[in-house]
Design a protein that fits this description.
This protein has about 270 residues and is an alpha/beta fold. It folds into 2 domains: about 80 residues, Ribosomal Protein L15, Chain: K, domain 2; about 180 residues. The chain is about 55% helix and about 15% strand. The protein is built from 10 helices and 7 strands. The protein has a 4-stranded mixed sheet, sandwiched between helices. Strands 2-3-4 form a 3-stranded antiparallel sheet, covered by helices on one side. Strand 5, helix 1 and strand 6 form a beta-alpha-beta unit. Helix 2 packs parallel to helix 6 and helix 2 packs across helix 9. The chain is flat and about 60 Å long. It starts with 6 loop residues before the first strand and ends with a helix.
Length: about 270
């Protein structure tokens, strides 16, 4: 869903960073460093810490061009978001939202949620996972601590979760998926929460393997770079698969008979879920 030419802009205005709009680019000025220019067409989302000179104009221009801006606390928590008031939804999104509105109950969503979470966990564990999401998340971090007890895994994984939350929110806004989110919410189904959990499983497993090879102390930019590498390809591809599965679930129910137990078993087999 993301394009390879796009990028995220991280700005820590506490470090005397000055931003200025110049035609179709952002000029970034920092003390004792040469100015850099970032083409606005490449900025799909921005994460801002604190405030700085010229920041408001830059943020508004990013949003005007369809981007999303998140404001982050010094501790890494996302506290506000700036995006377009009414992102444009395409025909496929409107069709899916209509199918959800016309569906009875939340059976299709519950089935989709179960299969997607099982599939996500199968990427990290060979056997079917036991317990709830929080318990299995602790299992992954405990695995890391067995090899690297000195790593602040909880703090670092919390920062990655915040970055993932901001990224997912930006994807939903920029691809006009809000009608689907709202249609499901009206039936008591939280799409964003399920997607975030599925994506975090894969991200956390990548983090655990990557972190075993890194130094004890890691600066925040290193974690950001790790996340952005995942956000370039891995996360968009996985998100698209989850959304494709959701659309298939509702559209087949809307245009055909309900899934039989044999079809459910076949779907599990294809996804290689125990």
């Amino acid at each position: 869903m993301s394009t390879s030419s796009s990028r995220a802009l991280y700005v820590n205005a506490r470090r005397e960073v000055r931003l200025e709009l110049e035609s179709d680019s952002i000029r970034v000025s920092r003390p004792q460093r040469a100015d850099t220019r970032i083409p606005l067409r490449r900025v799909r989302r921005a994460v801002i810490t604190a405030s700085g000179e010229g920041l408001l104009a830059v943020c508004l221009e990013i949003v005007r061009r369809g981007g999303t801006v998140h404001f982050q606390t010094a501790g890494g928590a996302m506290e506000a978001v700036l995006h377009q008031a009414r992102p444009t939804a395409n025909a496929a999104v409107r069709e899916l939202a209509a199918a959800i509105d016309c569906s009875s109950g939340a059976g299709a969503f519950r089935w989709w949620r179960e299969v997607q979470l099982l599939h996500a966990w199968s990427l990290a564990f060979r056997r079917r996972f036991r317990g709830d999401f929080a318990a299995n998340r602790k299992r992954l971090l405990r695995y890391l601590r067995q090899f690297r007890p000195d790593v602040p895994a909880e703090r670092e994984s919390a920062l990655l979760r915040e970055l993932l939350h901001a990224w997912l929110q930006a994807e939903i806004d920029q691809h006009g998926l809000q009608p689907v989110v709202e249609a499901l919410s009206s039936k008591g189904c939280e799409l964003v929460e399920v997607l975030e959990r599925c994506l975090e499983v894969r991200l956390l497993w990548r983090y655990v393997r990557w972190r075993r090879q890194q130094a004890h102390e890691l600066e925040r930019p290193a974690l950001v770079r790790f996340f952005e590498l995942a956000a370039a390809v891995t996360l968009p591809e996985q998100l698209q698969r989850h959304l494709d599965a959701l659309r298939w679930e509702y559209m087949t129910r809307a245009h055909g008979p309900s899934r039989t137990s044999e079809q459910a078993a076949e779907a599990r087999r294809k996804l290689r879920i125990p």
